[in-house]
């Protein structure tokens, strides 16, 4: 069945699906939507935000280095760990065009009928999900140039949802996005003082690293 976004303003626990401990913490905090980053590496769908370093056994992200020779979380394990009531937000990473079809096929085989969000800044990765009833496609916008390309990319269609970097989200752009999509999400939102102004712009979902934000917008009794 098609996924339904939580009513009212809701939080997406950013990167919480990338590590079992963080996933458990987000669920305990009352998260209804949990984001995980997916990469295709050597034929496997890996769940991580860090990048590989070619043939070197290193994972990196900005100023962070991690050993790459240990076990890595994969999509089947994520699906086992995430409770059924959690709406997973799968953010597709990298430039490998095989990732989209691989994730679509894996979700159909491993979790048939389970609703999920799927996003990418490389919009071609989203094409396999357009006909998937259980997937809500989110076009991510990380630059002003990509924002200007959205209407042309949609070609008159209305997007189910869009996600835009908070620094790009002006009132004028918010108005344009509402005309082009059913829901506007934004990231990063780690300061509770931002919730009111963003709600005033009509933002539905805030993508946050902060469990305080998750708790602030979680419905009463959701935690645990």
SSE order in H/E notation? EHEEEEEHEHEEHEHEHEH
* Average residue pLDDT: 90
The major pleated sheet works out as: 8 strands, parallel, barrel
Discrete helix count: 7
Number of domains: 1
CATH architecture: Alpha-Beta Barrel
Strand order, biggest sheet?
1-2-7-8-9-10-11-12
Spans of at least 5 consecutive residues whose pLDDT stays below 50 are 56-60
* CATH fold-level assignment: TIM Barrel
Q: Which outline best applies?
A: globular
What structural category do the secondary elements indicate?
alpha/beta
How far from one another are the termini? 25 Å
- Highest-level CATH class: Alpha Beta
CATH homologous superfamily caption: Phosphatidylinositol (PI) phosphodiesterase
Q: What is the helical fraction, as a range of percent?
A: 25-40%
Give an overview in words.
- It is a single chain.
- This protein has 224 residues and is of the alpha/beta class.
- It has a single domain (10-217), classed as Phosphatidylinositol (PI) phosphodiesterase (TIM Barrel).
- The chain is built from 7 helices and 12 strands.
- The strands form 2 sheets. The protein has an 8-stranded parallel beta barrel with strand order 1-2-7-8-9-10-11-12, surrounded by 5 helices.
- α6 links the parallel β11 (184-187) and β12 (205-208).
- It is globular and about 45 Å long.
What's a concise summary of this model?
With 224 residues, the protein is of the alpha/beta class. The chain is built from 7 helices and 12 strands. The radius of gyration is 17 Å and the shape is globular.
């Amino acid at each position: 069945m098609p996924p339904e976004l939580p009513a009212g303003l809701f939080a997406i626990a950013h990167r919480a699906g990338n590590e079992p401990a963080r996933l458990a913490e987000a669920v305990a905090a009352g998260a209804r939507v949990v984001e995980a980053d997916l990469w295709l590496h050597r034929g496997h769908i890996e769940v991580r935000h860090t990048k590989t370093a070619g043939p070197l056994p290193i994972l990196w992200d900005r100023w962070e280095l991690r050993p790459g020779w240990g076990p890595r979380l994969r999509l089947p394990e994520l699906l086992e760990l995430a409770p059924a009531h959690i709406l997973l937000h799968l953010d597709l990473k990298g430039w490998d065009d095989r990732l989209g079809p691989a994730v679509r096929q894996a979700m159909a085989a491993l979790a048939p009928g389970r609703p999920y969000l799927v996003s990418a800044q490389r919009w071609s990765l989203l094409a396999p999900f357009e006909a998937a009833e259980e997937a809500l496609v989110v076009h991510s916008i990380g630059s002003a140039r990509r924002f200007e390309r959205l209407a042309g990319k949609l070609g008159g269609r209305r997007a189910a949802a869009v996600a835009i970097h908070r620094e790009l989200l002006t009132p004028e752009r918010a108005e344009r996005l509402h005309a082009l999509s059913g829901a506007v999400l934004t990231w990063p939102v780690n300061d509770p003082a931002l919730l009111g102004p963003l709600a005033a712009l009509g933002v539905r979902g805030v993508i946050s690293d902060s469990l305080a934000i998750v708790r602030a917008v979680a419905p009463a009794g959701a935690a645990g």
